Amino acid sequence: MTERAPLGVAVIGTGRMGADHVRRIHEVTSGARVVAVADVDAERAKAVAARVGGCTAHTDPAAALAADGVDAVLIASPGPAHEATLLAAFERDLPVLCEKPLTPDVASALRVLDAELRLGHRRVQVGFMRRYDPEYAKLKALLTTGQLGRPLMLHNRHRNVASPPFFTSSMLISDSVAHEADATRWLLGHEITAVTVLRPTPSANAPDGLRDPQFVVFETDGGALSDVEIFVNCGFGYQVQAEIVCERGTARIGDGHALVTHMAGRWGGTIAQDWTERFETAYDREIQAWVDATRRGEVTGPSVWDGYAAAAVCEAGVRALEDGGRIEVELAEKPALYA
Ligand SMILES: NC(=O)C1=CN([C@@H]2O[C@H](COP(=O)(O)OP(=O)(O)OC[C@H]3O[C@@H](n4cnc5c(N)ncnc54)[C@H](O)[C@@H]3O)[C@@H](O)[C@H]2O)C=CC1
Ligand SMILES: O=C1[C@@H](O)[C@H](O)[C@@H](O)[C@H](O)[C@H]1O
């Protein structure tokens, strides 16, 4: 690849996120083009490839990685399939953007971490896109100035309209609260040391047997608390909000007051209905940052260590959900590669 050639991207998994990322790279991102896609569903892969000129469709991710013109990989298959594609990408030393979660459990996350360490350099950006959301970025910048003083508590709310049919009670933690695990670590610059999960009586609108909502409390090594209301069948909208409480003040994001209307004796606004709407700008910025860094020969953004740490927090959270009580998070020693 010459310095100015567009980055040739293989997109693995062409479901909801993968197809949206293909569209994004094709229409929004500069400096990249999709040259191959793979999906176990051949028809879906073909349909998505057909929307992009010069893109080959595969059912085997390894074949897509080996296709002509592939310089980098975007993984958007389900979490349990990530490890195999990550390891295949490492064999070709290809840069990767891997949708969250890095992998669904600690054992597989550690295998990926070990494999990247053996490679000897960072290759992966993990898709914790909230770090690229303008509101989260402003909150992070404010905290970095130190004006508010030491962070004491972070209150998070994470609401989805409805959960998909395959969603389990533990997925509220491993699939959804994974975002707050990362946001807490990133915003505070602390590691999470323990997790407690409280379970109110499930909403009558939750599917039978689903423990929804849940109230999760993280303790951090900086002495802060971060709580998360996770409610994936709230019915009315997609809401992600965060309020930081510090020694000298508070700051809050996610109220969605960009447009307030006054009409017919009422005032109000609209609520996003899903993540593609609420975080559209974050995804655009995330993919552009990945493409730009990759073309410079760099790897930036959330690392394999961040993906592993989130997996460790979520695994402790799932145990806390199942067993009750407070579960400590066990983290390996942080390798120098991720310092
Ligand atoms: N950052 C974010 O806000 C979000 C991230 N995600 C993540 O994106 C990833 C994909 O999620 P969705 O698009 O919602 O799922 P989806 O189910 O809509 O799409 C997954 C696609 O992967 C294909 N697939 C399954 N196994 C495969 C394999 N071994 N190789 C290649 N393709 C395979 C499926 O046929 C399907 O087309 C997941 O890791 C999920 O956690 C999902 C939603 C939001
Ligand atoms: O990552 C996501 C989904 O996988 C998850 O299931 C949702 O709860 C999150 O809001 C969304 O951002």
UniProtKB/TrEMBL annotation:
It catalyses: myo-inositol + NAD(+) = scyllo-inosose + NADH + H(+). InterPro entries: Gfo-Idh-MocA_inositol_DH, Gfo/Idh/MocA-like_OxRdtase_C, Gfo/Idh/MocA-like_OxRdtase_N, MI/DCI_dehydrogenase, NAD(P)-bd_dom_sf. Gene3D superfamilies: Dihydrodipicolinate Reductase, domain 2 (3.30.360.10), NAD(P)-binding Rossmann-like Domain (3.40.50.720). It comes from the Bacteria. Signal peptide: none annotated. Pfam families: GFO_IDH_MocA, GFO_IDH_MocA_C. Residues 140-328 form the Gfo/Idh/MocA-like oxidoreductase C-terminal domain. Keywords: NAD, Oxidoreductase. It is an enzyme of class 1 (oxidoreductase). Residues 8-128 form the Gfo/Idh/MocA-like oxidoreductase N-terminal domain. Its EC number is 1.1.1.18. Homotetramer. HAMAP family: IolG. Involved in the oxidation of myo-inositol (MI) to 2-keto-myo-inositol (2KMI or 2-inosose). Belongs to the Gfo/Idh/MocA family. This is Inositol 2-dehydrogenase. It comes from Streptomyces olindensis.
